[in-house]
Write a structure and sequence with these properties.
Helix content is about 35%, strand content about 15%. It is α+β, with helices and mostly antiparallel strands. A hairpin with a 5-residue loop joins strand 1 (about 1-5) and strand 2 (about 10-15).
């Protein structure tokens, strides 16, 4: 304990790095006396949890102390000092801040549009707990299918092709149902594709090489194949045989290409296809085909509108990959090059039908709402398709450059929003701890628990943090001050601040490091006493 005389005639005591100010009269409170101090709460190692004792009664100030480092115009020996007449000060007028320019809440939180989008996606991606209500929407579904539970039907149509203008595909011979489910082994939400017919022609083990090859395809425009099982958990529809079930990644808030741009006649498309988005889809489809072909695989004319998913942000995914290879095994005599070339032809048909709902070049010429560059590219793809996907890349070089620029710009925007939120989690912990500690009238049946000892420091710090006023007493709502101050507490800065009581009669000088230690010790004390009440 170090006692000194301050410049304005007040005594100052330093206790463990904290400076307390009080008058020099004999009847003033001694901050270290056993009589006036509040009792220490010892920790497990016997050390005190307090940095100094806060008096239960306020110090007897004889003059108003100056604030913000201003020296008193009266010396300590001046007997002509005017008497102090207490007047109601503005709320926390002593807690002026100089943390810099005002910062609004938008400086520390992501945009509302992005937050809403992420919250909707998070709600859909949240795993469902297996309980009695997991099948309350569809009671005809089994409770569990292998390692999956909480099934919901995502595809009520059964068959996948509904428009007579769609290209022919082997998918038309495969009857499937699609479910959203939760993987009980890994705890994430996934998509299950149940094959109703035809049944698997060979043991599943004989397809392991093909399954592993499709599992290895990890591309941002391909819905990843996760697992393949045989199940008898559904009500039998095929004489008791095992049904093939494929697990894919779950794409939230997605719709099919067919639903968006190619509904059955006479219904118009539900989404207007802009040329910029069309070029983006073309680049994504070609990029996905390149990854599949480079792995020695083929979609086998599986590039159909019902198996392409569109997600918010112009994201595109090729769905149900590997399904045709399992249901209709590829003959060893058929060259993979021919199958990959058929994928390019399927791409041409898909784009032509989307652009003009026909594969006729004459009708394509009439689509004047598209640019000549797009019409020329579609005509080339339909009349003289490249032999490989690599031969197609030079025609899209400029478009891929635009896609790369757009992707990097979007990444920068998302990183900027992320930087705003990066500290919010750890700062919330400090605010929550303060909320548990400050002004607890119920603790130990002692209404003054939060007003004594180290808790009093936290109460004054709470006012310093949230109840700032300017020199005219006008409240200052400055998010920058709150965030910067909490950051200093979280990092344990040695910088010191002056904490003042609401009537200005108590002043404490503490560092952010002290406040951090006090906050943690008081919170641990509260946890310990809470644990004792539950486990006497």
């Amino acid at each position: 304990v170090v006692s000194t005389q301050s410049t304005w005639g007040m005594k100052a005591q330093q206790i463990r790095g904290t400076t307390y100010y009080y008058d020099g009269e004999e009847n003033s409170t001694n901050f270290t006396s056993e009589k006036s101090a509040q009792p220490y709460y010892p920790t497990e190692n016997g050390q005190s949890t307090s940095i100094g004792m806060i008096p239960r009664r306020t110090p007897n100030f004889t003059s108003a102390p100056p604030f913000r480092g201003q020296a008193s115009k009266y010396s300590s020996d001046d007997n002509n000092r005017p008497p102090f007449r207490p007047t109601p000060p503005p709320p926390l007028a002593s807690n002026f801040t100089s943390s810099g320019p005002y910062q609004s809440a938008s400086s520390f939180f992501m945009s509302e549009a992005l937050q809403t989008s992420l919250l909707r996606k998070a709600e859909l991606m949240a795993p469902v707990t297996l309980d009695s209500t997991s099948t309350r929407f569809q009671n005809d579904l089994p409770t569990k299918v292998g390692p999956y539970h909480s099934l919901r039907n995502l595809d009520h149509s059964g068959n996948t092709t509904t428009s007579p203008s769609l290209p022919e595909s082997q998918f038309s011979e495969i009857h499937t149902e699609v479910y959203k489910a939760t993987n009980s082994q890994k705890g994430y939400v996934c998509t299950l594709r149940r094959v109703l017919s035809p049944l698997l022609s060979s043991p599943l083990d004989s397809f392991q090489t093909t399954i592993d090859m499709w599992k290895s395809i990890q591309h941002p425009n391909v819905v990843s194949l996760k697992n393949v099982i045989l199940s008898t958990d559904w009500p039998s529809r095929n004489g008791g045989g095992k049904e093939l079930v494929l697990e894919y990644s779950y794409i939230a808030r997605a719709m099919t290409w067919e639903q968006a741009y190619m509904p059955p006649y006479p219904h118009p498309p539900t989404t207007l296809l802009r040329e910029q988005a069309f070029w983006s889809y073309i680049c994504q489809l070609v990029s996905a085909l390149k990854a599949i072909h480079d792995a020695g695989l083929s979609l086998r004319r599986g590039l159909v509108p019902s198996k392409i998913l569109l997600a918010p942000g112009n994201r595109l995914y090729i769905n149900a990959v590997g399904l045709i290879d399992l249901v209709f095994p590829l003959p060893s005599s058929q060259p993979i090059d021919d199958l990959q070339q058929s994928d390019i032809k399927a791409l041409s048909e898909l784009l032509m039908l989307t652009a003009c709902r026909s594969t006729s070049l004459d009708i394509l010429k009439q689509q004047t709402h598209f640019s000549p560059a797009l019409r020329q590219f579609l005509a080339m793809l339909a009349s003289n398709p490249p032999q490989t996907v690599h031969d197609l890349l030079p025609y899209l070089a400029d478009r891929f450059m635009n896609e790369s620029t757009q992707a990097l710009t979007t990444l920068d925007t998302l990183e900027d929003d992320l930087m705003k939120e990066v500290c919010n989690g750890r700062l919330l912990r400090a605010v929550v701890k303060m909320g548990f500690i400050n002004e607890r009238p119920d603790h130990e049946f002692d209404p003054s628990w939060s007003e004594t000892g180290d808790r009093y420091v936290l109460k004054l710090f709470r006012d310093y943090l949230f109840h700032q006023c300017d020199d005219k007493g006008i409240p200052k709502v400055d998010w920058g001050h709150v965030v910067n101050t909490l950051n200093k507490v979280d990092t344990g800065s040695e910088e010191k601040i002056v904490l003042a009581s609401r009537d200005g009669s108590n002043l404490l000088v503490v560092s952010f490091k002290d406040i951090k230690r006090i906050l943690e010790e008081c919170f641990q004390e509260l946890l310990a006493r809470s644990a004792e009440s539950y486990h006497p």
